[in-house]
């Protein structure tokens, strides 16, 4: 990390206080990959909601979908995220569908800030093609599924406090852009008379 980014990361760490930075976005947007790098740069714990859900259910996400169906997965997801948000400061990679719940959005914004990693369809499809375990994409036409999700979800993801567009950048470049965006946002929105 260059010196300027290190300084901005230290500033973000100071301004974030005990809040959670929640990454939102579609499958393949980089919530887990960039989230880990961000946490490392900010010297904060990294928590992945999907991993926590798997630990709570003692089975992989795909099996929860198969055994209990998506509505039950969503209930579990909401309760796990609620529990995670009790223990900031941290970087949280939410699951791709979590931010669609109004209750989850509210609880994220009561306990921290949300950052949307937006991306275009071609980039997402390249990224998700590396893994075949995502239950929603076990479909003869995963691109059509992804386009449908983009249409439904992008207006909701747009409610996030910050958007960072994933162009075809390396993970380190993306992490740097995320740190800069967080620093810009927090510098503008944190009251100067309030201890951060
Ligand atoms: N900027 C990047 N450059 C190159 N590869 C990337 C980048 N961001 C993410 N990736 C890769 O793309 C794949 C998907 O990323 P990741 O698993 O972080 O997505 P996600 O948003 O967590 O998706 P999901 O909602 O399915 O968990 C991973 O293999 C990851 O290493
Ligand atoms: O976009 C979604 O709805 C999902 C994304 C993943 O993170 C997992 O939470 C699960 O595969 C569902
Ligand atoms: Mg992930």
UniProtKB/TrEMBL annotation:
The keyword Kinase applies. Mg(2+) binds at residue 32. It is an enzyme of class 2 (transferase). Signal peptide: none annotated. Binds 1 Mg(2+) ion per subunit. Its main location: cytoplasm. Its cofactor is Mg(2+). It is found in: Cytoplasm. GO terms for molecular function: ATP binding; magnesium ion binding; shikimate kinase activity. Its EC number is 2.7.1.71. Keywords: Amino-acid biosynthesis, Aromatic amino acid biosynthesis, ATP-binding, Cytoplasm, Kinase, Magnesium, Metal-binding, Nucleotide-binding, Transferase. ATP binds at residues 28-33, 134. It catalyses: shikimate + ATP = 3-phosphoshikimate + ADP + H(+). Substrate binds at residues 50, 74, 96, 153. GO terms for biological process: amino acid biosynthetic process; aromatic amino acid family biosynthetic process; chorismate biosynthetic process. GO terms for cellular component: cytosol. It holds the Pfam family SKI. Pathway: Metabolic intermediate biosynthesis; chorismate biosynthesis; chorismate from D-erythrose 4-phosphate and phosphoenolpyruvate: step 5/7. Belongs to the shikimate kinase family. Catalyzes the specific phosphorylation of the 3-hydroxyl group of shikimic acid using ATP as a cosubstrate. HAMAP family: Shikimate_kinase (MF_00109). Monomer. This is Shikimate kinase. It comes from Ahrensia marina. The gene is aroK.
